[in-house]
Amino acid sequence: MSAVEIPTAPRKPGDGVRLFGFTVGHVNMPVAFFLDGEPGEIRAPVTAFLIDHPKGLVLFDTGLGSRFIRPKGTQPESFIDLEQGDTIDERLKAIGVDPGEVRWIIVSHLHTDHAGGNAYFPNATIVVQESEYDHAFHNVAEDPIYEISEYDLGQPYLKIRGEHDLFGDGTIVIFPTLGHTPGHQSAKIKTDGGDIVLTGDCCSLKRSLDEFRLPGHCHNADQFMDSLKMLSSLERKGARVFPSHDPDFWATIPKSVPIG
């Protein structure tokens, strides 16, 4: 039995680790932001995931936060679009999960569209690569995609170096995928349906991996390419790789119900 029962998705005997996906806003961007040199515009989903483990509830990323909320029925005022009711806490409440029950947040990195919702989970410990923590707290003056008020909240941090098995049972394995930021990380989730890799921004679009295409901005392009090669290796071994901002891929993923 799960440590926290989910009313709209009750566990069945034999259920293992379950994964739920949520849309937590959108960003309207040039495609070149994700694929260097590519023309056109894209309305990209902002994504977050709940991992239902028998030892407790875990989030992978928390999406956009309260500073971007617009009232229902109004038009977005910038390229960031977050309607009232679409934040990760509201998404969880809609399936019967109390945000106070979430015990762990794995942040792929601390950019505002991946850590903006951290404030909704006061009882959670934030799991982050130490190099990402150091950069985000001490070296972000020139990077507006970090907003320190969204992640300097008094919550405890578990600062890790390299690969980390969260529960020691191989079901949630966090591993560095550097390049987008100095301490970017991804996670491999072992579900009953097979391994799923949550990539964060080391793979924003499916084409990023299929074509080994880098975005128009990288902290370190060589590390970024190495991360794509690692994801490709995992995919060849049978893992399903989930890009973080791909609208076509995301349309194929069920929301608010178990994925695997």
Give your account of this protein's structure.
This protein is an alpha/beta fold. It is built from 6 helices and 13 strands. It has helices at residues 88-94, 112-115, 130-138, 206-210, 221-236, 247-250, and strands at residues 18-30, 41-53, 56-60, 69-70, 80-83, 102-106, 125-129, 157-160, 164-165, 172-176, 185-191, 194-198, 240-242. The longest helix has 16 residues, at 221-236. The chain is globular and about 50 Å long. It starts with 17 loop residues before the first strand and ends in a 10-residue tail after the last helix. Its cofactor is Zn(2+). InterPro entries: MBL_superfamily_lactonases, Metallo-B-lactamas, RibonucZ/Hydroxyglut_hydro.
C-alpha termini separation: 17 Å
Number of helices: 6
Order of helices and strands: EEEEEHEHEHEEEEEHHEH
Structural class, by secondary structure, is alpha/beta
Strand content: 25-35%
What oligomeric arrangement do these chains adopt? single chain
What is this structure, in a nutshell?
Helices cover 17% and strands 28% of the residues. The protein is of the alpha/beta class and 260 residues long.
Secondary-structure map:
Elements: E1 18-30, E2 41-53, E3 56-60, E4 69-70, E5 80-83, H1 88-94, E6 102-106, H2 112-115, E7 125-129, H3 130-138, E8 157-160, E9 164-165, E10 172-176, E11 185-191, E12 194-198, H4 206-210, H5 221-236, E13 240-242, H6 247-250
Parallel strand pairs: 3-6, 4-5, 6-7, 7-8, 12-13
Antiparallel strand pairs: 1-2, 1-5, 2-3, 9-10, 10-11, 11-12
